[in-house]
Amino acid sequence: MEESTQNKNVSRRNFLETGITGAAGVALGLVVGNMLPTNQEAAPEMVKMLTADGKLVQVEKRLLPETCGKPLAVSNQELLAWMEKGKK
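Predicted structure:
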């Protein structure tokens, strides 16, 4: 009777040790796996824009100035100069 109790205790201990060791190994693998750099470079974010002659082009978003697409305050003189420039 004592032998069967010892066998159960040993197998329970082995089971728990194996489970804890396995769980720690999986957790460590996930942490190390997330820290390793990936070889695949992320595709740059592209923005579709129209050129002055009406062609559709794609431009990397990082190449655009920060003010692009945001309204800017323009003086009347600058606006008139721009309109005159377009008439020539």
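Summary: Residues 46-87 form one domain.
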